[in-house]
User: Fold this.
Amino acid sequence: MIPPYTRAVIALGSNLGERSDTLSAAVADLVDPPEVRLLAISPIVQTKAVGGPPGQPDFLNMVIAVETTLPPRELLQHCHAVEQKHLRVREVRWGPRTLDVDIITYGDVVSSDPELTLPHPRAAERAFVLYPWSLIDPAAELNGERVGELAVNAADFADIATFDGFQNRAAEATSPGSTGASGAVERP
Assistant:
């Protein structure tokens, strides 16, 4: 008997190397096994690093929704294996990385296990997770609040910029018709 599928939301980020290519390849790796099916994929956004050492390169971030038969810990192990495939190094907390993969939610599971806290303990404060998530599921809620509302109230919301693969923050800040120095998404 096949176990039932559970919907999970997974956030991906990269600020080293070929960030966009890494995210694309990581999504393919995450949904490669038959136990994980892709339901939705957000656009990529560019953000400043939140926390960690100063002076880090900007991150590219995205969110995917999947359904999976893997239990939460096995899904976490799978996410860590994908990070390792993309040469993730864990030397400095919140430091620069080729790939970061976090499980944000796993169905309605609530867990305070320090190895896998669900929902993700800082997701409700991070626009770089909430905003892309709201784009693929506008009705989504986290801790009883709409993720879109949480996103616009998050401290890092002003630093989110759209990313189409051709942008350069310095060029964006000086080009005619730009969205401003940060390229930030306007608040609704």
